[in-house]
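If it is no trouble, might I ask you for a protein's amino acid sequence along with its backbone structure tokens?
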Amino acid sequence: MMELDEPASDVEENNPKEVDDERIEFNVNYSDNWRDDFTESELYSMKLKQTLEQYSIPTQAGRDITYFIRLMIKRTQKATKAGDIAPTILFQDTLDAVLKKKLPVKYDDLNVCHNGCIVFSENMSECDRCKKDNSKSPKRKSKTMKMLNIGSQIATILCDKQTRELIEYPRNEFQFKQGEYTDIFSDEEYQRLSSRSNTCKEADLNIYMGLYIDGFENTNVSKHQHFSILHLLFFNFPPHLRADCICP
């Protein structure tokens, strides 16, 4: 029978760091019968299949993961032959810490009620709806959500000459044509607002954003929790760039 030792997390409490390879490698043990019937590649593939089925991961996602693993193996072999440092895959908690440190996109981790009722403020000790405690103990992980400060991201865009030029599209590039709808700025409501509002006319730069909900609801959650996806669209960018700027 094949047994796999679960890997330890490579993040310690409040101090994310890498650990020795021995702690994060799977230890595959199998009997002589399994050794005779299956190759090591097949055994690892069986473990992957088991994991995919355990978490109900779609077949296509499983294929994508398999392609990704094969690519990693090839890159590792190539790096080893060249005497370079072989690539590895970080655990998600380590990756979150790395991204938060290196990327200009900064977000805050907020404590959330375990039943999903509310987001706790700093001074709240319990949920005012279900009375669940707001756990701040480092030994007891609380439920969290990430909050992105949109104002800070816009300020970052404005500070960069290249991106600032891009978000000046409504003023510098868009051309209104009567009776022709080419962009959201062609809409009658926008034209009415921009013509009547002195604030819009006199401002050095106007920021236009849209908030949308598509009605999607995740059904793979407990019966006590429901959530939908909100999409924030930044209209200042040219239309061909907006699809890459959606913030779910």
In short: The chain has three domains: 3-82, 104-147, 165-245. The beta strands are 3-4, 11-12, 15-16, 28-29, 107-112, 143-148, 209-217, 228-234.
